[in-house]
Write a structure and sequence with these properties.
By secondary structure, the chain is α/β, with parallel strands linked by helices. It is built from eleven helices and 13 strands. A seven-stranded mixed beta sheet has the order 10-7-8-9-6-11-12. A hairpin with a 2-residue loop joins strand 8 and strand 9. The two termini are 14 Å apart.
Length: 352
């Protein structure tokens, strides 16, 4: 049975999701919400680097809520829980990279009620947070006994992220250190990462000390650095490192870290990615220990990344791949722990 899917937003993740939905043998794109008025009324394929698909983008929320569809791939810049509840109550499953990776003890009663009313399922998934911070660490952890520490870490060149507004106004690159220290990113990112950490802690059985400990480190430019937001002047923020940790008895047992640099030159402190370059890492310390490095999820060059960034693409792919499993799941908020193994699909022309 072909699943009818609505794509919500056509930023970087949304464009990649439309491409993946279009290529998926078990899905049909039936609708698409866009934020800006200049995109409304245009063909979704043309907005997303494809041939015309015969689907017109719209900013009419009510029309899409009323549309018959099996699932919404929900990927605007920021989540609107009230809107997500409307979609769920209308009978549509929702997959999103924005939140609800592992609600744990958080109050999600309104969303649970919406799922019950619509007989629908909500699933939060992405890559970081998401696969790198919870799915893959838990999978790899099965190879070890007596686990003492789990680490998930990203090393990325933010010059390849073609979203200037986000880079400048939300991530606060190019600002003064004082401005960047007030960044909402510690809390904003922490909402997702700490949910991932909670999942790992609960599933592995760590009795953590209390709330996660977070740190935010900065490096500034020592000379002008070209970037998606223009030249970052000396003394302005050009690299950031965010870390979240859970401890047991004061000793770290779960670490999630993000290293975001505007390249590796002209930084103070002189941070760099090391010999392995851009990557994601998952490490489980135990008996024995395991260290997995993910390459291929970063672009080959800055120019290639601004054209199509694999990190953004895999965020979309991980969500789209989950759609058939989410549509088949029991109603409610469902995490990796509730779903079977999620897999992709063969390329067109190679499948059954």
């Amino acid at each position: 049975m072909t699943l009818r899917v609505i794509q919500w937003a056509t930023g970087g993740v949304g464009q990649a999701a439309v491409q993946d939905i279009h290529a998926h043998p078990d899905m049909e794109l039936v609708g698409c919400w866009v934020h800006s008025a200049d995109k409304a009324g245009r063909d979704v394929g043309e907005l997303c680097g494809l041939e015309p698909l015969g689907i017109t983008a719209t900013n009419d929320v009510d029309a899409l809520v009323a549309m018959q569809a099996d699932c919404v791939m929900y990927s605007p810049i920021m989540a609107d829980p009230a809107l997500v509840a409307r979609l769920l109550a209308s009978g549509k499953n929702v997959v999103t990279p924005l939140n609800w990776f592992y609600p744990g003890n958080r109050d999600v009663s309104e969303l649970e009620a919406a799922c019950a009313a619509g007989g629908s399922t909500l699933h939060g998934t992405g890559i970081h947070p998401g696969g790198i911070t919870e799915r893959f660490p838990l999978m790899v952890s099965a190879l070890s006994a007596s686990i003492t520490h789990v680490r998930a870490e990203e090393f990325s060149d933010i010059r390849t992220y073609g979203a200037p507004g986000v880079v400048s106004d939300i991530m606060l690159f190019g600002k003064t250190p004082e401005e960047a220290k007030a960044s909402p990113m510690v809390g904003f990112l922490g909402q997702g990462f700490i949910q991932s950490m909670d999942m790992v802690a609960d599933e592995l059985g760590f009795k953590v000390d209390g709330d996660a400990v977070s740190t935010h480190e900065l490096a500034v430019a020592t000379a002008g650095i070209d970037s998606p937001i223009g030249i970052i002047e000396p003394g302005r923020v050009a690299a950031q490192r965010f870390t979240w940790q859970y401890t047991v008895g004061g000793k770290p047992v779960i670490t999630v870290r993000v290293n975001w640099f505007m390249g590796e030159e002209n930084l103070d402190p002189p941070w760099n990615f090391g010999p392995e370059g851009e990557r994601f890492e998952v490490e489980v310390e135990g008996d024995p220990s395991t260290h997995v490095v993910f390459h291929g999820l970063h672009p080959e060059s800055v120019a290639a990344g601004l054209e199509r960034n694999p990190g953004i693409v895999v965020t979309a792919n991980h969500g789209v791949s989950a759609i058939p499993y989410v549509c088949a799941a029991e109603p409610g908020i469902r995490t990796y722990l509730d779903l079977p193994l999620v897999a992709g699909r063969a390329a067109p022309g190679l499948g059954r």
